[in-house]
Amino acid sequence: MHAKKDGEALLSDALCEKTGQDVQQSREQSREKIIYLLRENPAVIQNDLVAALHLSVKTIEKHIMNLKTDGIIRRVGPDKGGHGEVIDA
Distance (Å, rounded) from C-alpha 3 to C-alpha 9? Predict the structure, then answer.
C-alpha cells in the first residue's frame, strides 16, 4: 500500500507540473493575442479584449498591467480618447 501512495504522489506531481506548464503557455498565448490586437487596432478597448479572448475583465487588466510593467505596451493620451501602443524594441 505504501508503494501505491508513492506512485500516486508521483502521478500527482506530474499532473501539477503539466498543469503549471499549460497555465504558463496559456498566459503567454493571451499576452501575444493582446499585443497582436493592439497592433491591429490601437484604439481597442478592454471590453473588446474580453470578448475576443474569452477572459475575465480582471484577467485582461492583469495582463495589461504586466505588459506595461514589462515595457511592452504603453498608454498614449488621456483615458478617454487615448489608445494603447506596442513599444517596438
Answer: 10
Separation CA 23–CA 17 (nearest Å): 10
* Residue 37 and residue 49 in contact, taking contact as beta carbons nearer than 8 Å: yes
> DSSP state, 7?
H
- Label residue 82 by pLDDT band (50, 70, 90): confident
Non-local (6+) Cβ contacts of 37 within 8 A are 44, 48, 49, 52
Residue that has been written with the C-alpha cell 487596432 in this structure? 41
Size of the chain, expressed as the number of residues it contains: 89
| Domains, the chain, with CATH or none | 2-86 (1.10.10.10)
Q: What is the pTM of this model?
A: 0.73
Q: Which three cell numbers stand for residue 73?
A: 505596451
